[in-house]
Structures
1.
Amino acid sequence: MNSNPFSLNGKTYLVTGASSGIGAQTAISISKLGGVVVVCGRNKDKLNEVFAKLEGEGHQIIVADLYTQLEDVINNCPKINGIVYSAGITKHIPIKYIDKKNYDSVFDINYTIPVFLLDKLFKNKKIIPNSSIVFISSLASKFPFKGGTLYAGAKAALDTYCKTIALEFSHQKIRANTINPGMVKTPLLDGAEETISKEAMDEHEKSYPLGFGETTDVANLAVFLLSDASKWITGTNIIIDGGLTAGA
Ligand SMILES: NC(=O)c1ccc[n+]([C@@H]2O[C@H](COP(=O)([O-])OP(=O)(O)OC[C@H]3O[C@@H](n4cnc5c(N)ncnc54)[C@H](OP(=O)(O)O)[C@@H]3O)[C@@H](O)[C@H]2O)c1
């Protein structure tokens, strides 16, 4: 163990969704704390941009669509000390508009794929003892919104999945937690603005005592959860929301 429990020196982490938003910032923050990062995403150009911002050496890029190229990720991933699973999409789909296609698209990336990714990484012994697994879930899993059945449901399943990992792998001191953020300023939020007006979004921000979050706010929690400083924290769903639900 490092003498500085917050250090990630000598450790290697897989970050999915590393080409954008929270995942991109988390990869950069890991590298600033001395960790080596395997950055994974679909968009090669955006991954290269993130890669160029990483400090230190030994980092790796895996360009893969997790829907269709999961095997490439498993095969190219080295042995790791942890994962930040940040890949995800959000869609507003009112209950009457749910069909098999939109159900699969939202559930697959937010729940089914992380389950099978972890399954295969465990079976291939890529996740070593004392590792830390962090899923970027959502505040929506605890406080759903209209049109959020699929997204909030998938994230709620992820919240529970993390607890079962914590229970089943504690003998290897492998920890698993979710981060459940409220609104964070990322391209995902820009996507939400296609279905919710900018005015409505600005109004919503006023209900956040500390305003919407920055990607660094979430990344800082993620690197803490990866580090030995959090070695007694496992099986938790940690809300980070600028105070939105403090009075809920
Ligand atoms: N932003 C928020 O307000 C907020 C709030 C709560 C929770 N979250 C959660 O935080 C996580 C990150 O969100 P973000 O805001 O950082 O979003 P973002 O900027 O849109 O980034 C999403 C990431 O997911 C990747 N991704 C999506 N589908 C993929 C697929 N099929 N295969 C591989 N990668 C895929 C994207 O890769 P490419 O760019 O390469 O396509 C991108 O790197 C998500 O799980 C989201 O649900 C976000």
Note: The chain has eight helices and seven strands.
2.
Amino acid sequence: MGRAFLDHYQQRETDQVTGWDMDECDITDPIITDQIVALNPDLVINAAAWTNVDAAESHPDTVYAVNTLGPKYLAEACARCDAAMVQISTNEVFPGEPGRFYREYDERAARGVYARSKLAAERAAQQMLERLMVVRIAWLFGPGGNSFPTKIAEAADRHGKLRVVADEFGNPTYAPDAVRAISRLADLDRPGFYHLTNSGYCSRFTFAQTVLELSGRGHVPITPITADEWTRPAPPPLHAVLINQAAAALGVTMRPWEEALAEFVGEYMTNDT
Ligand SMILES: NC(=O)c1ccc[n+]([C@@H]2O[C@H](COP(=O)([O-])OP(=O)(O)OC[C@H]3O[C@@H](n4cnc5c(N)ncnc54)[C@H](OP(=O)(O)O)[C@@H]3O)[C@@H](O)[C@H]2O)c1
């Protein structure tokens, strides 16, 4: 997602953009606050995170350092130089009870280490900074990353058949679409909590099936299974489906996930990737 932000802002001639990667900045190092204050930015977007949800279970100290203390230091820096900040968060801060849909200010209850560290980040950053936009996204995919559509295509090519969970639901989120929407929101400079995913939602099974069809792999047999049959160290919330109410009220919405997925598959996935 960080890459998509850089691409987007570098194309806007009005902005001076600085993108930092791990070798230039480590958000777990408190010195990051001075680094940012020295830059004196108008806006800081934090797309850095520990995102390996299952591995997070066995590395809680590192995960909390990256996902909670990092955003806290960034928010502290923004408060010192009067900058706004966008903290990217996740649908996993919600419990995801079957059949539930979550609005921006619904009660949060995170389960695994990753989800709890992201929820703690929302709280820590909020304590530090008024000009904070917390933007929750969900099943992220896009160019350059190892995302669900790419993994499904690779698994289909390797195994010739698939089993995919059909009782986990979420909102697919195309990174370039989310970045455009977040940038519009940031231009409005309205602090608060926002949900920005592509519109609509689906099960993992439908997401996978649509990838297969769009990428010319519609012949690959795919069997629906339950989440219980696909055990993971950090079981995801089954129905943490987000509703975009707050950004929509400001005129910021996103196109349906099927359209975004068709564009992604057409532009970035060939029949043999
Ligand atoms: N992926 C999803 O489905 C999803 C869903 C909901 C929300 N989100 C949220 O969306 C945001 C972006 O996710 P993504 O999928 O783009 O993640 P990603 O591909 O894993 O990228 C995260 C980036 O953070 C960097 N990073 C890790 N530790 C760092 C540190 N201590 N200091 C500075 N940079 C560090 C990583 O660098 P290295 O590559 O060098 O490790 C990587 O470039 C995250 O906040 C994530 O929680 C993602």
Note: The mean pLDDT is 96.
